[in-house]
Amino acid sequence: MSSTVELTKENFDQTVTDNEFVLIDFWASWCGPCKQFAPVYEKAAEENPDLVFGKVDTEAQPELAAAFGIQSIPTLMIVRDQVAVFAQPGALPEAALTDVIGQARNLDMDEVRKAIAEQQAQEGQQAG
Length: 128
What we know:
There is one protein chain. The protein is of the alpha/beta class. The chain has a single domain, classed as 3-Layer(aba) Sandwich (Glutaredoxin). Helix content is about 50%, strand content about 20%. Strands 1-3-2-4-5 form a 5-stranded mixed sheet. Helix 2 (about 30-45) links the parallel strand 2 and strand 3. The longest helix has 19 residues, at about 110-125. The termini are far apart.
């Protein structure tokens, strides 16, 4: 049984809203690096049962890929408390994926939200 969740435009928002920590693998069946990354991602999902590991098939869900500006696959994204805290294209080796998960776990989300609010305030001032 797979420990990853197939994300679609129908369940994506609900999944991200209902879970405070979601990893998302944007992939496609024709993508060689995606196939190489899949077992690494599955293993990480098994080793982190408290986290949600989602997969978005960019061929079947082009709207989701477009909504996140996915230009190359695989792309790994991490969403915490409905905030994208990490996004990087490329198949990560196992050690790098483990490290990224650890870093994302250790983020202080209050600090992240504060930084985003400050950035948005600055952008608002520049626009005016």
